[in-house]
Structure formats: structure tokens, C-alpha cells
Amino acid sequence: MASIGLFEASISLFCFLIFYYFFIKKNCGYLLIKKTLQSYAWNWPVLGMLPALFVWHNGIDDIIWFIEKKNLTFLFKGPWFTRMDALITVDPANIHHIFSSNFSNYIKGSDFNEIFDVFGDAIFNTDSELWKNQRMTCFSLFSIAIQRKGQSWTCRIEEIRSQGFDHDHSNGESEDLLTSHIKLDTSKYELLKPNDDKFLRDTILTFIAAGRDTISTALTWFFGLLLKHPYVEAKIHQEINTNLPKSRSSQERPWSAIDRKAYLNKLVYLHGALCEAMRLYPPVPFQRKSPIKSDVLPSGHKVDANSIIIIPIYVLGRMRSVWGDDTLEFKPERWISETGGLRHEPSFKFLAFNSGPRTCPGKHLAMTSMKAIIVEILQHYDVKLIEGQKIEPKPRLVLQMNHGLRVTLTKKYSS
Ligand code: HEM
What we know:
Blueprint: H1 2-28, H2 30-40, H3 52-55, H4 60-69, E1 73-76, E2 86-89, H5 92-101, E3 106-107, H6 110-115, H7 128-147, H8 157-163, H9 177-182, H10 197-226, H11 230-243, H12 246-249, H13 257-265, H14 268-280, E4 286-291, E5 295-296, E6 302-303, E7 309-312, H15 313-316, H16 320-323, H17 363-380, E8 381-385, E9 393-394, E10 400-401, E11 407-411
Parallel strand pairs: 2-7
Antiparallel strand pairs: 1-2, 3-4, 4-7, 5-6, 8-11, 9-10
Bound molecules: protoporphyrin IX containing FE (HEM).
């Protein structure tokens, strides 16, 4: 059955290419055919809308243009023999409906679980009760992790199990996430398995993937944008210097965690610049959901049970109707209110940290860590972009730069 489908698809693709090159392209001209196919993204027999991808030569830019034209939502029809049909939406009203107001009807689904089976049954990959148990532990453990500084997640499972761990935290020390998971109270979280090495491995792998690649990607894009916008860099330097406590500038005493947090909280413009970088280059560039029961979205589109909904967050940050005509510009001012504070943007519009009950639990830790890293770098180094490099995204699960970011770092000896 599958081989017949493939054969028919090959014939159709072949016919389409003949038709495209020898009839339409020759007679109608390239621009006309491109415009026509973009406008209608024809649903071809057998092939669905797959041929449209051939004429979307500008890749993601064409897709962005097309989704805006379609009022932020459209149904992509894949070839009939595949399960590629998907509703693509970046409509904030739909996002709010899917991620928050009708959250219980929209799950990640079994396909997602299969694709990311490397994470096993850890929080990132689960739905329903198991997810709820993990989410609850996440929040209680997170406050512990935030306090802990500099402890690496080495594989100390056996060490902790046989020798126990320092339960006495009266000295202010707290334990790391691995230890906390090993010691989970199973009467409270009955679906979790702290005695199972696989559960611990999946959990720690998830936290490393969730926290490490996202932060490094966000910082790379931030510096890529910053170094191309000298006026933003100058404003951030000014903000850092104006707010730096006197004791810190003269290196009289080390930072306490409280000093550091209070200081970082004052860096409003830097906060806005980081959000702006993640609006344009969200480290997690898309979300995928599947309805348990059929439903109608606020945009009026009907979704069947088990169908696929894709939310391309990268595209959402580029929609004129959502962010305005200057949407493609890097403008930290967008995030600053008239009184100089931070302007709140709802998470169903700024989806970099997800929205609703599945909002990233590491959001505040991530923002604080990134701000601290940026301040340290900018205070101690002159950072310059190496000219002539191509800066472009590599569309993956995490939106890294295709060739990395090449910069020179020169130590500032005066600091
Ligand atoms: C710039 C940094 C970060 C960004 C942009 C980010 C973004 C996200 C996004 C979009 C999701 C939803 C993923 C999905 O459901 O498919 C998520 C979930 C998650 N993030 Fe983050 N994250 C960041 C940093 C962190 C950090 C530092 C941690 C912890 C160490 C963390 C832990 C998690 C966890 C555990 C989940 C799963 C939550 C759940 O499914 O309920 N993240 N994050």
C-alpha cells in the first residue's frame, strides 16, 4: 500500500515539475507563477500543497509573507499518503485558546513523545497526571536550584544513595536538582520513580537540554543583534554603569545573591533587549499541539481530534498585524513603557517561554542568568563582530545560528 502511494506521488511530482517548467514557467513567467502559487498554495491531487514549497524560493520569508496574507492561520495539506496535514497558526487569540483557556484539550500527543523519546517520560515529553506530578516537583525544587551556585550535575546517584546527602541545610547550602529528585517524597508524587535510574537520567537530561541550549542560543542571537546596533549597546553600557552599586565598582566586597538580583532587576533596558532578541529569534522556534476532542478555534477554524496544530513562534515574532510595521526591526524600546518600566506583553503574543500552565518553569532563572552573563561580558571585554560572516538561523528544535557567531574579545584592563 505504502509503495503504491509513493509511486503515485512520484508520478504526480514528475507531472507537476513538467507542467511547471515547460508550461507555466515558460508561458506565464516566473514571477506570475510564484505569485499565483503563493496566493493560493494549491491543494494538488495526491501531492497536496507540497509543490508550493518548490516555489517558496526565499524559504521562511515566503512562508512569513504567506501566513500574514492568510490572516495568521491556514491549513497545510500534505501529500495524501502521509500524515502531514497541519493547521498552522500564529493568531494570538488561537494561541491563548490552545495554551490557556482550553488547555486540557490540547496535548503534545503520542507522535511528539515518539520523536523526542530521548527524553523518556520526563516533564518535557509527558501529558496529563504524570506531567502534573513533575510540574509540581519542578516548582518546589526550582527555588532550591536557584539558590545553589556553581554546583555541577555530576553523576552522583550511587554516592548519594549509599552515603546519603547532607540533609542539614542550616548552613544555607541547598541541594542540586539530581539529589532533590533522588530524595523525592513518593507519597506526594506517586507517579514519579526516584529509585529508577532511567527516570533520573531522563529528568536530568531534560533539564540540561532545556536550560543549556536555550540560554546559549538566546545569548548568541542577543550578541549578534547587539553588535549590529551600537546605539543599543551604548544604552546598555550606560544602564549598567548608572545602576552599578559603588561598592561593586571599587571591588570592595563580593556580591551577595540579594545584591546581585536587586541590581539585575534594575536593568530594564537590558531586559527589554533580551526579550526583543527572543521575539525575533525564539530559542524554541515552534510548538506542536494536538486536540483530544474536536474544537473550533477563535479564528473560526475547525480542528479534528488528533489533528496536528503547529505554532511557528519564529513567524509569530515577524507578523506585522501582531507587532506593527516595524516588526522586523530590533527595537528594545518596544518593551519599555512610557514611565520607563517594563512594558508587559502577554505570553500568547510573546511565546518564547511558552504560555499557560506549561509556561517554562526556568523563565526567571534564565532571564537572571542571561542578564548576569551579559553584564559580566560587557563590563570586562570589548566585543566586536568579525566582518563578512553570514548570520542566519539553522531551523532545528533549538534555533541555533547556522555558522555560529564569530567575535573578537579584548580584555578591558581598566575594569
Ligand atoms: C532562554 C532560556 C529558555 C527558553 C527560551 C525556554 C523556553 C521554553 C519553552 C518554549 C518551553 C516549552 C517547551 C514545550 O513544551 O515544547 C520550555 C519548557 C521547559 N523549560 Fe524552558 N526555556 C529556557 C530556559 C530554561 C531553564 C534555564 C530551565 C531549567 C533549568 C528550563 C526548564 C524547562 C522545563 C523543565 C520545561 C518543561 C515544562 C513543561 O513541560 O511543563 N528552561 N522552556
